[in-house]
Specification:
Elements (H helix, E strand, L loop, with lengths): L1 E5 L1 H7 L8 H21 L3 E5 L1 H9 L5 H18 L8 E2 L1
Parallel strand pairs: 1-2, 2-3
Helix pairs in contact: 1-2, 2-4
Length: 95
């Protein structure tokens, strides 16, 4: 069984950064908060399913961005997600 949960990149898009100095600092704060949810799901014995439509659709939502910029954007969001999932065994995660 699995429990779906949203990715940090999607939460980042829904809420405006009003408190953190940089967008990256905000993104990793969101990842730390989501880590609590991911750990609770895994601790309950479920697979953690990360739903990440923002990552898959970034190229459509930012069509003027260069390939390099899009890759950098995605790379940072993947880094944040991996940060949030760091204590969960890879075989317990679906993306």
């Amino acid at each position: 069984m699995f429990v779906p949960s949203i990715s940090p990149s999607n939460v980042e898009e829904w809420r405006r950064n009003d408190y953190y100095k940089t967008q990256e600092e905000y993104l990793f704060a969101v990842a730390d908060a989501m880590r609590e949810e991911y750990n609770a799901i895994a601790a309950a014995g479920f697979l953690v399913q990360i739903d990440d439509p923002r990552l898959a659709m970034h190229y459509m939502l930012a069509p003027d961005e260069s390939v390099e910029d899009a890759r950098a954007w995605a790379g940072k969001r993947i880094e944040a997600l991996n940060h949030a999932l760091r204590n969960i065994p890879q075989e317990r995660v679906r993306h």
